[in-house]
Amino acid sequence: MCNLHDSCVLKIAVASDLHAYQHIDGKPLESYLNVLGTTDSASNDPLQHLSNLITHEQLKADLFLSPGDLGNKASVEGIRYAWKSLHEIGDKLQAHLVTAASGNHDLDSRFQNYKYDPTEILQRLIPPYPLPNQVNNDQYWARKFALIQTEHYRLIVLNSAAYHGGQEDEINHGRISNLTIERIAEELSKSDIAPVNIILCHHHPQQFPEIFEDDDTYDIMKNGQQLLNLIGNGEHGNWIVIHGHKHHARVAYSQGYNSAPLVIAAGSFSAVIHPKLQTQARNQFYLLELPLDHQNGFVGTIRAWDWSPAGWSPAMPSGSGLPAVCKFGCRDAAQNLAGKINKILGNDQVANWSSILQEIPELDFLLPSDFKALVHALNNKKFNINVEFDNGIPKEIGRRQTI
């Protein structure tokens, strides 16, 4: 039995790619989480700032998930520090479960610290990793995944780095084997469909072309699309996949069926952002709010915060990764929605956006990318409708005069 903070909403906090490590003076900084303290002062610490944010905003979460890379380059000290810190933050959020999926930096695949087993760093962690129950952990290590079932959600914690330390080239990408997919299918067929179904993993199961460059396709989760096809075929409920790895946030529906899962690429919580990404990504923390029985079906809200040495603040409308508030759930085509709006506007020249939402409430749950497509559809010659914004929030629509 899972007791939620809000009986109608499942809340999930997400912090990905912490990359904690023991920094050496004179070397380039790779993460803002230094187990010996930050380079400037304790006040410039993303974890301390997150604790302050939780207190100030009175944030609560039912689950606290990390999509991997707790440490940097298999740093034993960093992984221990990050795992302990996640549980401390989880306690502050009053989360009933704190868990993580193994990232490529969490496996000692180059055998720097342990001669035989690249997973020993993780299997020695206290509290037990990745789940509190040892039976679940044995399943995670032996079968490459563990499934947690509650009244409100099903959670699959997937080890997409399971083969790191095996064949030499496996360290360059993630993988889910055919056998693991078959076993997940068996488990899903035996378990009950929950209102919310989640896969937590490290590597991306699909490419996002606007983020990943052509030469980055090598590090995708091999067989990832087969996994998405399995959970998106409509037989196993509504799914969200949460992954990390790329340090660039993005949210989109996967390709395939109209019940295809939502895929959330979480930005890095505290790694120093690569120069190529610094105009497109910031360090981010997330809180998902998922109504369990909404009139518009499977919908939700993702809240995002950016970090700077001054602390955590609501994410910027652009250039951060995810904006401060982003919603999902409306899958209607942009042209169809534009036609509905055009009909509501009729011969009127101007209307408040709030009045449009009253008529078409599902509009409030468009992904940012889908909302851009809607604005473009409204602007074309067929409708001649402009959308006016205030600080990135739609306020009014108006029909352009034609000559």
UniProtKB/TrEMBL annotation:
SUPFAM superfamilies: Metallo-dependent phosphatases (SSF56300). The keyword Iron applies. It comes from the Bacteria. InterPro entries: Calcineurin-like_PHP, CNP_phosphodiesterase-III, Metallo-depent_PP-like, wHTH-Calcineurin_assc. Gene3D superfamilies: 3.60.21.10. Coiled coil: none annotated. Residues 326-378 form the Calcineurin domain. Pfam families: Metallophos (PF00149), wHTH-Calcineurin_assc (PF24408). Residues 10-248 form the Calcineurin-like phosphoesterase domain. Keywords: Hydrolase, Iron, Metal-binding. Belongs to the cyclic nucleotide phosphodiesterase class-III family. This is Metallophosphoesterase. It comes from Methylomonas subterranea. The lineage of its organism: Bacteria, Pseudomonadati, Pseudomonadota, Gammaproteobacteria, Methylococcales.
